[in-house]
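1st attempt posting a full record on here, be nice pls
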Amino acid sequence: MPTRKRLLPESARRTAAWCGVLLLVAGVGAVGVWLCVALRTAVTPILLALLGTALLGPVHRRLTAHGVNRSLAAGLTCAALVAVVGGAGYIVVTALVDSGSRIVASLKSAAQWVLDHFDIAGVADVDDLADNVQTLVGRFGASAAGGLLTGISLIGTLVATAVLALLLTFFFLRDADRAAHLVRTLAPRGTADAVEAMGRTAFEAVEGFMRGTTLIALIDAVCITVGLLVLRVPGAVGLGALVFVGAYVPYLGAFVSGTVAVLVALADRGFVIALWALGVVLAVQVLEGHVLQPVIQSRTVHMHPAMILIALTAGAGVAGLLGVLLAVPVCAAASGVIRELRTRSGAPDGS
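the predicted structure (as tokens):
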């Protein structure tokens, strides 16, 4: 019997198979993202609670290792979080309220200085530019927060989200020892070990990201604040707080906060002090990029800078400001899962 000739060569059939797999994965991912956006009122507190659990997990484990009851340890950890965040928030808000008007005035003066010295046509006055920026920011904020304001005020939504995230953090910390058993119970038959390993690797990646980012943000904020205080730049504490918050958005946050600090120095203290402020910001960024990042995060988060920037852009497009905050931790978890799959399949790790 003659052999039937195949319509497509082997290479074409392999390509078609991989295209089908990629389309299937992309479709499942798109449906998952759509569900998260549609259910963001419930998903947002869960994701924030997971980030809080990743950050506070080592503290809770240390307390339980010293014989503290798990529920009491979780309660103490959450109470410490509220105290630290509340105290830091009070300090930041007070500093920004006290120096906010000076910072805004300095930014306007710096913008006017740029317009005057570089002869930028088409802008008559810096106030017009400020009004346009305020309009754009308002529109972006409205689109980013759209859907969260259905029937209730923004403040009420934020408070409810924060309270629910705190409660979920308490339960996640207290019942962390049951998570592995739950994962093994829900996993398909024969895959319990692999699913548990992927879950542990993903959470360890998020935990490393949160712990490392917080430490790096604190070091950056302290160094820049000290430098600005030495240069007698107004609002140094508020600018340092901005640096700390911005550090949770890799690359973009440091660029924006550093630019604001230099502009404030330029407007209030002149060109020479602005150069010194730029030197301080650049020195801190070099310290972060060449010392802090490799030492602190190299063993827990393996992500190329290009991947981080793409994740930030995609997160902003999907969920606005919240997406920017959550994009990198989600990608870190996904990267951990992919590494675990490569390890179990026997493929060489290219990271």
